[in-house]
Amino acid sequence: MNPHLVGLGTALPEHVVERSEARAFVEQMFSGRVRGLERLLSVFEHPRMHTRHLIRPLAWYASTRDFAEKNRVYCEAALALMETAANRALERSEVARHAIVAVVVATSTGIATPSLDATLVQRLGLSRSVQRVPLWGLGCAGGGAAVARASALARGLGGAVLLVAVEVCSATFVPQDHRISNIVAASIFSDGAAAAVIVPEREGGGLELLASHCRLFDDSQEVMGWDVTPEGFRVRFSKSIPQIVSEHTRSLVDAACGEAGVHASSLRHFLPHPGGPKVIEAYAQSLAIDESSLRHAWEVLRACGNMSSPTVLFVLERFLKAGPKKGSLGILMALGPGFCAETTVFRVR
C-alpha cells in the first residue's frame, strides 16, 4: 500500500485587498522614485488576479520597519495560521492526535529558533515525542516538498504525518526597495497556510501518493531567493522563470511518472503551483494542455494570489472539492529557490 493524503485544511488572514487597492498603494509608495512606474503598474491589472489576503491592513506596510520587528510579526501571524489550518486538516482526516508520529513544516518568509513546529506541537496537543522536521528556504516549492517528505516519513515510520506550509510574504515587503522585483512581488504575493495529514495506508478515500520526484538545477541560485538586508528579506527572482517552466516541465512530469510506474499520457489532473499568470501559461504550453485543465490553479491565483509554499495545497483543496473521478491519476507540481522542482504523482481514491 502507498501513503494516502486523508485530510487537508487551509487558513487565510482577515485583511482582503483588491488588486485596484494594491495598485494604488504601490503607486503612492513609489511615485517619483521608479522610472517607468506607470508601465510597471500594469502587472496589477491582470484580469485573472483579483484579491489577496494579508496579515495587516495596507497602511501598515507603508512604514519602514526593521527585520526584527517584521520577523516578530511573522512568527505571531504564522503560528496563528498554522494552528487553524492544522486543526482543520486533523479534524477532516479523522486521525487521532496521539497517532501523529511526525510534523513537517515548510516556511521561508521568516526565521525562528526553536522552529515554529515546537510551539505548534504544544498548541495542537500532539505527542511530545513526535519527530519534528522543519523545512526552510524552499519558497514556492515548499508545499510540494512537504508532501513528498511527509509521504516518505509516513512510509518509513509506519505512522501518520502532519505537514504544514505557511508564509507571511507581506512581512517581507520593503517600502524603500525600488527595484522591479519588489514591485512585481507586491502585485502577486500574499499570506496563508495549509496543512494535510498523510497516513501509511488506507483502504479507500483520499489521495494515494504513488511517487515523488525532485530536481535541482545547476547554477541557478540567482533565479529566485532572498537577499538579507537590515530592512529584512529583499526578494530576488528572474524574468526567466516562465521560460524554465516551459523548457523543463515535460521532463519533470516524465521523470515523476517513471518513478510512479505510470505513463505521462495517463495523467488526467495537473495541479501546479500558480506562481503567476505567465507561469501558469507556461505550464499549459509545456504540457500541451488547454488552460481550462489548470482551472484550479487559476482560481487560487485569482482569489488568493501567490502565497508561496502553501499555494499548491490550496490548489489541491479546490481540486478535491470538485469531486474528481475515483481511480484517475494526477500530478502535483511546485518550483522554487534552488532553483528546484518538487512533484508528486497521485491517484484519486
Keywords:
two-stranded antiparallel ribbon; 10 helices; alpha+beta; about 35% helix; nine-stranded mixed sheet; 13 strands; about 350 residues
Brief account:
The chain is α+β, with helices and mostly antiparallel strands. The protein is built from 10 helices and 13 strands.
Structure, explained:
The chain has 349 residues and is of the alpha+beta class. 37% of the residues lie in helices and 27% in strands. It has ten helices and 13 strands. A hairpin with a 3-residue loop joins strand 12 and strand 13. Helix 3 packs parallel to helix 4, helix 7 crosses helix 8 and helix 9 crosses helix 10. It is globular. The chain starts with a strand and ends with a strand.
> Major β-sheet, in short?
9 strands, mixed
| Spans where pLDDT lies below 50 across 5 or more residues | none
Q: If helices are DSSP runs of H or I spanning 4 or more residues, what is the number of helices?
A: 10
Report how far the terminal alpha carbons are from each other: 12 Å
Tell me the fraction of residues in β-strands, as a range: 25-35%
| Inertia-based shape | globular
Number of strands: 13
Average predicted confidence as pLDDT = 94
Radius of gyration: 19 Å
**Strand order in space, largest sheet:** 5-4-6-7-1-8-13-12-11
Helix-strand string: EEHHEHEHEHEHEEEEHEHHHEE
Structural category: alpha+beta
Q: Portion of residues in helices?
A: 25-40%
